[in-house]
Amino acid sequence: xxxxxxxxxxxxxxxxxxxxxxxxxxxxxxxxxxxxxxxxxxxxxxxxxxxxxxxxxxxxxxxxxxxxxxxxxxxxxxxxxxxxxxxxxxxxxxxxxxxxxxxxxxxxxxxxxxxxxxxxxxxxxxxxxxxxxxxxxxxxxxxxxxxxxxxxxxxxxxxxxxxxxxxxxxxxxxxxxxxxxxxxxxxxxxxxxxxxxxxxxxxxxxxxxxxxxxxxxxxxxxxxxxxxxxxxxxxxxxxxxxxxxxxxxxxxxxxxxxxxxxxxxxxxxxxxxxxxxxxxxxxxxxxxxxxxxxxxxxxxxxxxxxxxxxxxxxxxxxxxxxxxxxxxxxxxxxxxxxxxxxxxxxxxxxxxxxxxxx
Length: 358
Fold this sequence. Notes:
- This protein has three domains: 40-112, Orthogonal Bundle (Arc Repressor Mutant, subunit A), CATH 1.10.10; 113-178, no CATH class; 179-356, Rossmann fold (3-Layer(aba) Sandwich).
- It contains 17 helices and 13 strands.
- The chain has helices spanning 27-36, 38-50, 53-56, 64-71, 75-87, 103-106, 116-121, 126-132, 134-140, 144-149, 153-159, 162-186, 204-212, 224-228, 271-285, 305-317, 325-334; strands at residues 2-5, 13-16, 24-25, 62-63, 91-93, 98-101, 194-198, 217-222, 243-247, 259-263, 290-295, 338-344, 350-355.
- The strands form three sheets. A seven-stranded mixed beta sheet has the order 9-8-7-10-11-13-12, sandwiched between helices.
- The longest helix is centred in the middle third of the chain and has 25 residues, at 162-186.
- The radius of gyration is 24 Å and the shape is globular.
- Mean pLDDT is 90; it is low at 1-18.
């Protein structure tokens, strides 16, 4: 809430109350202050995820003492953190020093189906440092992560922080599963007998498509670490009989297929590298082959703040970028493909399709 105060030397200003930024000024001043200090709220949520507070609260309200004992925290400091999370609706207070779940806090449980806790914990230490380097990355145009660590994110996961890599893959897999129904419903498989998921990770999209289309065969193509973690249902059982997992590098070659799916891979790379992958798909698939990208778009102006922030995240962490629909269409043309169109999926991802001419 806000109240209006008249001062003799200026126009009426808005004085922030408990739900606003602690500054005095017009609404636009408060709005900028709230955005600038939003990191405080982010830090509170991140801390709650790191401490696994959502796992420490059961179906009944829990006392601060009980939660502190479960997570190994100072009782007084923990109460202050929980009070902050209550202010943002992450938990609710069930009396003095007693806290209970909300729908938001349940989403942070380790057993939540959408994997939010794992996603929140991915980069919980280095992520802050990367965003702190945003101005430097904007000046240089270079990836903050590579500049700081001297290696890319995946090399860092493999060589320095296996745990962070596991959290990232687990969280990404959970989000992929959540998006798969929308993707499967939006993707036409008419006339397709074999598709290839390029950089398909554990194979969740392959599994979803094989379940929805019993007449097709799927190829999962990725690096060794992904193939080693192949979903159990793609190793044995009915789906496994129609799935082939192949280790390889899409920057060098891809297997033959009639349809290529590339989900959230190209946004990690610059245009030239992306076009190499597209040409490899065109060469292996031949005339008439379809290539479908599954990517988040950022238009100008952006449709949502999240689109623009994800674009900055890709600059900082991967040295990549989100693109507009037109930028992907132009990329298709430069790679010798014919753009077909863009299809929404009811998720943050769009299907961007091209066909190999001839």
